Amino acid sequence: MRTCPTIASLGRALSAGAGRKVGFVPTMGFLHEGHLSLVRRCRSENDVTVVSIYVNPSQFGPAEDLGRYPRDLRRDSALLRREGVDVLFTPGDGEMYPGPYRTWVDVRGLDDKLCGRSRPGHFRGVATIVLKLFNLVRPQRAYFGQKDAQQAIILRQMARDLHLGVQLRVLPIVRAADGLALSSRNVCLSTADRRAALALPRSLQRAAAMIRAGATASSDVRAAMVGEIAREPLLEVDYIAIVRLRDLEETDVIAAGDTLIAVALRAGKTRLIDNLLLGELSC
Ligand code: PAF
């Protein structure tokens, strides 16, 4: 594995693989099995696997956890080496945002809903950094987790709108044995918060069971989820949304193939998201 801390060294590493299919897994590090599932799929579908680790400051709001975001580059490198990754790109802020920096990507109409409402500017930061990374890595395929479903929907739109010619693969959520979706932020949870946080996957399991049993009214499913989460006083709900996949608009009727049930909440200081996807996000 070649580790490239600069754009110039990344360029040199990629020129060695010219003509081969490049797959790309962008991450913010502190890797878990969810990331590794993306890396494994990437390796199985491409000739060259590139992973980036960059905690992108522009996707964190001023009151958010940029300073507390967990990091362990040494451990991440060892994991990626073991997975057979070819190139690891680990740029610093000076490489990614050389001053003065003025160019931003807005995916309007999708970036102000759900998480965008409580994290203004977040998806502008995500879309901008992912476009910059795509321009540097030039992948044929890029791999993202379904846990960040809104992110995947926004990036899919960006890829279409800007003719990026990259295929986006969105892979299923990987969960801990107790059902909590894996997230780099889970290490920030106290024992009590983590126990309370399990109401989040429980609420989605409840929704899935209702839908399997034939429920189609969003209001019924939402009410059951609210009830499940309300039992945990340590949780503070940001949103419980039932939306159409194509435009993230709220829907009264749950339609197989075009529905996302998404939850965001706070357990202590830690913001957690999770979802149930009825449809396909890859393109
Ligand atoms: O999903 C993430 O880890 C980040 O949002 C991403 C896509 C690496 C951009 O910083």
What is the residue-mean pLDDT, rounded to a whole number?
97
Going across the major beta sheet, what is the strand order? 1-4-3-2-5-6
Beginning-to-end CA distance, first to last residue:
28 Å
By CATH, the architecture of the largest domain is named: 3-Layer(aba) Sandwich
Instruction: Give the ligands present.
Output: pantoate
Over all CA atoms, what is the radius of gyration? 19 Å
Element order: H for helix, E for strand: EHEHEHEHHHEHEHHHEEE
Number of domains: 2
Name the shape in a single word.
Answer: globular
Low-confidence stretches: none
> Count the strands?
9
Instruction: Give the CATH superfamily of the largest domain.
Output: HUPs
Helical content class? 25-40%
What is the top-level CATH class of the largest domain? Alpha Beta
Brief synopsis:
The protein has 283 residues and is α/β, with parallel strands linked by helices.
Q: What does this protein look like?
A:
The protein has 283 residues and is of the alpha/beta class. It folds into two domains: 2-171, 3-Layer(aba) Sandwich (Rossmann fold), CATH 3.40.50.620; 184-276, Pantoate-beta-alanine ligase, C-terminal domain (Pantoate--beta-alanine Ligase, Chain: A,domain 2), CATH 3.30.1300.10. Helix content is 36%, strand content 20%. The protein has ten helices and nine strands. The strands form two sheets. The protein has a six-stranded parallel sheet with strand order 1-4-3-2-5-6, with helices on both faces. β5 (141-145), α7 (149-161) and β6 (167-171) form a beta-alpha-beta unit. α6 (122-137) crosses α7 (149-161) and α9 runs antiparallel to α10 (218-230). The longest helix has 16 residues, at 122-137. The chain starts with a strand and ends in a 5-residue tail after the last strand. The relative contact order is 0.14. The model has no long low-confidence stretch (mean pLDDT 97). The structure holds pantoate. Pantoate is lined by residues 26-28, 56, 59, 126, 129-130, 148, 151.
